[in-house]
Amino acid sequence: MESIGIHWFRRDLRVAGNMALKKNFSRTQGRTLGLFCFDKSFLSRPDMSFNRFQFFLKTIEALRSELRQLGGDLIVLDDAPEKAFQCVTRWIDSNPKYQLDLVSFNRDYEPFARQRDARMKEWFDQKGIEVGTARDHLLIEPWEIFKTPGNFSDSYQVYTPFSKKWRQAFVGKSVQERLRSQQLGIEYLERLEQGTTNSNIFKLTWDNVYDQASQEDQLEFYIKENAKKVTIPIPEAGSLPAFRQLKNFRQRLDHYGDRRDIPSQQGTSRFSVFFKNGSLTVPQVIYFFNLKNYDKPKTGAEKF
To answer: pTM score, two decimals?
Structure first.
């Protein structure tokens, strides 16, 4: 049997700088498959408009296209995580060639997400499947900035002392190493934009494991049905548009402090739509612009 892994995508919809995906990939020698599962509680949120949902779907579509370009795959199932993983583990168990040994995902911090992840971790443990997690969309995780490290009940209530503690952590060796680790992801995005990436990075698709997997995928259905209710042009989605926006903002960065509050000018970064789905992360942005001074911002870059 060959060992394979599943990376559970959530709000990390990209390949570049995705540390949990990278660890999974390294462990399985490229036999890592992507999974995204729709949770009904997520779709029923009051702030989930049809327009926003279409951009989200397009982001997943761009990720799947990128993974397939690299020799990999992503399947989208219309189930909560419990049912989705029950389904895919049945597929893998029915194939005598493969054995699922590792599931990876990037950490999330909201109460709902933490409860979900603890529940799934228990399920994976019962199945004997190793779980690997990593830091992703945050540069510094919440429990690193408590008054007493690791004590959730001893959190800051006032911004100024919190920001001072954050700055102390930011200049520390471990956080600076996290920033330097973004270099490979940025270099990968440059190659992806130029069309010079290796097309054989990943070594497995879902159809290799289960010959009817593509028939179970629900992404195209969701895109087609939701498009009927969209009322605005949907921007380009995915890692490449996010990267282009990152490079375009470089030209406006020096004027950020003067123009960010002027609605008639494009003074802000417009990164938020990409941050929300994980096509771009805060660590990538800080590394890309080499931002260092958080104490007395004078330039547009420092204020940003």
So the answer is: 0.92
